[in-house]
């Protein structure tokens, strides 16, 4: 089965919404102002993206850890090491200003995609995994790029 399961696709796309929201509040001054007044700064512009991006990279480390349980021997060790990299990246490479943190998250998500590809190539991820991950990574990186550029 190479088609993305509907529930995984819908939940994955729902997980992109905070990144989209952050970009929209930057692109629309009216929406950004409303969000700032109503929700506060943490849920506006790059801040919602940065907080949420750290959470998602940590979450994805957990997903990769689950895939690593299917490996054995030296490959298992490699997979466990690779699985913690996204969370460690998010921890050490953010909190250094909004633009620099945004760039770090972009690099983190692109690096995560490379790790996803390795796990898929090793047969540890579902056959549809890379279709979903490429789609979601593209959307997330595009939204983060709005915050880095503006």
Distance between the termini: 41 Å
**Biggest sheet overview:** none
Helix content: over 70%
Strand content: under 5%
Q: What structural class do the secondary elements suggest?
A: mainly alpha
Please, what is the average pLDDT? 96
Q: Which residue ranges are poorly predicted, with pLDDT under 50 across at least 5 consecutive positions?
A: none
Gyration radius, rounded = 16 Å
The dominant shape is globular
The number of domains: 1
Question: How would you characterize the overall build of this protein?
Answer:
The protein is mainly alpha-helical and 150 residues long. The protein has one domain. Helix content is 82%, strand content 0%. Helix 3 runs antiparallel to helix 4. The protein is globular.
Task: Give a topology summary.
Blueprint: H1 6-27, H2 29-39, H3 45-68, H4 73-93, H5 98-121, H6 129-149
Helix pairs in contact: 1-2, 1-3, 1-6, 3-4, 3-5, 4-5, 5-6
Task: Give me some keywords for this one.
150 residues, mainly alpha, 6 helices, 82% helix, globular
In short:
Pfam families: DUF3429. The protein is mainly alpha-helical and 150 residues long.
């Amino acid at each position: 089965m190479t088609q993305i399961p509907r529930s995984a696709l819908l939940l994955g796309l729902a997980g992109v919404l905070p990144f989209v929201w952050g970009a929209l509040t930057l692109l629309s001054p009216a929406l950004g102002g409303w969000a700032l007044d109503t929700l506060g700064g943490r849920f506006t512009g790059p801040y919602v993206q940065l907080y949420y991006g750290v959470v998602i990279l940590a979450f994805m480390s957990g997903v990769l850890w689950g895939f690593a349980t299917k490996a054995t021997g030296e490959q298992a060790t490699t997979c466990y090491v690779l699985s913690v990299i996204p969370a460690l990246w998010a921890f050490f490479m953010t909190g250094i200003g909004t633009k620099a943190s945004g760039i770090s998250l972009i690099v983190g998500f692109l690096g995560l995609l490379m790790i996803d590809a390795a796990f898929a190539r090793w047969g540890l991820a579902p056959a549809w995994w890379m279709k979903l991950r490429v789609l979601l990574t593209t959307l997330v990186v595009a939204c983060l790029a709005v915050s880095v550029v503006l």
